[in-house]
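Changelog note: in this version the structure field was regenerated for every chain. One regenerated record is shown below for reference.
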Amino acid sequence: MSQISVLGETIAAIATAVILQQGSVGIVRLSGSESLVIASTLFHAPGRQVWESHRILYGYIRHPETKQLVDEALLLIMKAPRSYTREDVVEFHCHGGIIAVQQVLQLCLEQGARLAQPGEFTLRAFLNGRLDLTQAESIADLVGSRSTAAAQTALAGLQGKLAVPIRQLRATCLDILAEIEARIDFEEDLPPLDEAEIIAQINQVLVQISKILKTAEQGELLRTGLKVAIVGRPNVGKSSLLNAWSQSDRAIVTELPGTTRDLVESQLVVGGVPVQVLDTAGIRDTLDQVEKIGVKRSLTAAQTADLVLLVIEATTGWSAADQEIYQQVQHRPLILVINKTDLAPVEKVSYPESIKGVVATAAAHHQGIDALEKVILEEVHSGNLEAADLDVAINRRQAGALIRAKTSLEQVQETIAGQLPWDFWTIDLRGAIQALGEITGEEVTESVLERIFSRFCIGK
């Protein structure tokens, strides 16, 4: 982290995905004091184009010594402080693919730039005061968004909708601390401390912290998505359900039991929530060694899934084999899917009363999918898998800091109730203030920064 924190040192990286024969444009980004010098060395802008900030120049990138043409490109100049990092920033907009951008990056490095580390551009934006830590983390969330809802939540964080209430809570704690410390130093010169008011303020801060903490699980679900495992006996229609749901032929469907031998995955979005659907091998006793491995993987997937879809047949109803599977997965949030209702009435199918979520489908005819998604969303909003519409949502790091702040303030309450001296009040108040400051970056260690920005992609 000591290397990544050297402000002014010029860094460079490819800022777009590099994929063979894909992507029409590739961007090489530089930030630092030598960015413009390097750009002027490598880029030739024909005619009388003006090199000024926030202007796009057209021209050619050439090797500074051999003058060999590397690419025809555009150059974007953004002088400090009107840039993403608040340093001088330039971007070479090259042709896409692999070769051109890598050649340009290599030329930048040869001219004295250093290869940027993951997240270093955003780290500099934070260190230079352009972003606070919640906004920086929101940028990573926005880049990695897997649904519209997740993107909107990330944008809210980027706009400061999390930082503002956190700063207000911290400011309240600082005011309380100032009141107490003033009485410690100048008790005789000030009116008596209003303990009732102090208690009321701490209670209000705790209420707000608890409210924000409730968004942690919701935010995690929006960021990582919902893992759904489709389980059941062989040939009950699990693969047909996956194909109908994903509107593709991801899984092989035959009348032969045991066709699916391994996990088949599909990525969907249901009501704004990203969903990873796993079609598993039919669970049964078998002598086939390959199928045994598939059955074992099926049970593992079911036992680690956020939600299990247990599929049974309307034609055969609830069987002893279904009961055995149910006993192995009933500890997970579960929806019963009664499939093949085009062949038999669903009303005659009995099942354990403990199962509350039930959907009737005829997957082979693409029937019942809308009802299935509706029940899944009801399960999501029920509390076990809560992902309601959010304005902002905290991540695990922020939740950990809020929990520490909450614990410290609760300790202050106990200290006040125990009628201990004011000095004891200030100890835990400072702990709460520090924890809240860690969320926005007003109080943060180098190791925390390294942990946060190491998860970014290079070039961001």
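Spot check on this record: Residues 1-5, 250-262, 284-288, 386-390 have pLDDT under 50 and may be disordered. The first strand starts at residue 11 and ends at 14.
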